[in-house]
Specification:
single chain; 266 residues; alpha/beta; Rossmann fold; 7-stranded mixed beta sheet; 26% helix; binds 6-phosphogluconic acid
Length: 266
């Protein structure tokens, strides 16, 4: 059983004893959100990230999820992508395709990867244009309070420096309020060129889940979740605050080891 708790304003924390338990809980959570979205809207618009996340979603390719999830209604996006060819080892698309999308019956035309033959700036513009079209046709909902897309679920990983998607500490991309998708050419985590959802888009989602494992993330997680004074306010992960949606943290004990809340870490 996952140890769960709610940290004021920082969402639902689910701390798992083992990786296997975390993977099952994550697969259950995604499958359930998919069911709800398909029932309510007829679509499930999900945005993925790169890194360890895809491996942690692996149970979705197994029984029962591979049979019970309505894959035909899934529309796949990326919260961030590296500006490399789609078949490059650094591509988040390739990671997701090899680890997940090729193992379940997703409709190929529902997979919205970035244009890999243009510059980072153009790729960001193109991606935003694609999302705008899908908002018009209601495949992606729209926020009631701003004109942002409202993804059914955005999945994020956390960097040891506190980054989420390709929004890095002290980077001007954190201040972008107009664009839905922006680009950077100086990512501290290689490769340097990336496109990323902006904070207004992340915070307009119906559900945001941040999946964090390992001791190396414990400090960043502590700064992202707990009251730590001015230091914490600079951490991009702390800026993830869905306006109307729900925020859930999927954690292992190592990542959660520096959280002070005694109910969670006793
Ligand atoms: O493309 C990327 O680099 C990511 O989307 C990035 O935000 C990632 O999720 C974190 O860096 C965590 O990565 P790990 O889980 O592999 O540490």
């Amino acid at each position: 059983m996952a140890l769960s708790g709610v940290q004021k304003d920082r969402g639902d924390l689910r701390i798992h004893e083992s990786m296997d338990e975390l993977k099952t809980d994550l697969a259950d959570y995604i499958a359930e959100l998919s069911d709800v979205s398909v029932k309510e809207r007829g679509f499930f618009a999900i945005a993925l990230s790169g890194g360890s996340l895809i491996g942690l979603m692996g149970k979705l390719c197994e029984v029962p999820y591979n049979k019970t999830v309505d894959w035909s209604k899934w529309y796949i996006f990326w919260a961030d992508e590296r500006v490399v060819a789609r078949n490059h080892a650094d591509s988040n698309y390739k990671l997701a395709k090899d680890g997940l999308l090729s193992k379940v019956p997703i409709v190929p035309s529902h997979v919205h990867s970035i244009n890999d033959s243009v510059s980072a700036e153009e790729a960001a513009d193109n991606y935003e244009f694609v999302i705008r079209q899908l908002v018009k046709t209601h495949v992606v909902s729209v926020s009631e309070i701003n004109d942002c897309p409202k993804f059914d679920l955005i999945l994020l990983g956390l960097g040891a420096d506190g980054h989420i998607a390709s929004l890095f500490p002290n980077h001007p991309a954190l201040d972008e309020r107009e664009e839905w998708v922006t680009f950077i050419t100086d990512s501290p985590k290689p490769p340097p060129e990336r496109i990323t959802f902006t904070l207004p888009v992340i915070n307009s989602a119906s559900n945001v889940a941040v999946v964090v494992t390992g001791e190396g993330k414990a400090d960043a997680l502590h700064l992202a979740i707990e009251e730590v004074g001015p230091d914490g306010s600079l951490i991009p992960a702390r800026m993830v605050q869905p306006t109307m949606g729900k925020l859930v943290w999927f954690l292992d004990k190592q990542a959660a080891s520096k959280l002070k809340n005694s109910d969670l870490n006793s």
